[in-house]
Amino acid sequence: MAEYAETKGYGKIRISDKRSESKSEVDQEINQEINQIETFDHEFLEGAESTEKVPSLAETIWKEIWNTKAAMVALVVFALILVFAFATGFFFDETEALRVNIRTTDRAPEWFAGEFFLGTDPMGRDMVQQLMLSARNSFAIALIVTIGSMIIGIIYGLISGYYGGHIDNTMMRILEFLLLIPGLMLIIVIVSITPNYQTWHFIMFLTLLSWMGRARLIRAKVMQQVGLDYVSASKTLGTRNFIIMVKKVLPNITSIIVVDGTISVASNMGIETGLTILGFGLPFGTPSLGNLIRYAAANPIVLTNRLWQWMPATVLIFVMSLCVYFVGSTISRAVDPKQQRT
Q: Three-state SS for 180?
């Protein structure tokens, strides 16, 4: 039988099969094995410390944007537009900017030679100021609609995908029925019959009709997460379902939420502008890029002879949507390891 000795924290170490060895030889053998274990532990700890830190989602996204020239340029341009739009209060009084002035109606651009750099609109208002107010309102409305629809879609998809079974079947049948309703046509009908129609009505209608597709996406991702071991382990430990959904599952689908939300901002800006041009979006007189273009659509003379009253708004909405699309597609590539650039 072999003999073993207890050592400090290293368990039992084999001494020798020979009972005839002297005490000094036994001690020497024990010390050698202890030194080997300590050397291995030291090397293992050094290797663990030298391992690179796993980057966070924000760091991964920023690295991908930084390495993509088109996305970086788009981000800078979009940031400058937002600064230009939201700095209105520092440059002029909004009440004065919206006031009608019949003495300055339909003035052509004076560039750097006069008071009105981009001219005036049919009500005598400065087009630069109108662009700033309109860009701010269009972006703010698109952002509010996106956030509202994301909240509804996340809650609905999270519950449906997590519980599954009869709850999922019932919720999905309801969702499929809602998806059959033509959303844009319904908005047009509601706007037409709503008395005292205001901006918040449009935001509410568009939010309530734009969350269904988002809920299906979240449900699919949640169902993938529910089948993983960490969810089963949390349930076995007795963790409440609400805690698992909010603190375990939801953080693991953050990437797809960020991607979908970014692209939805551009989509909602386009929907708001299109509906406003058709007369079923924001109320007439509300500063928005769609209303600036709507003036031209309602008057052939403006459309052909006064390009300064609608062309800048058209270019601005196109550039803003394109910038958001470039950034959104880059974020989508960043959260997919197979598409990331080295």
A: coil
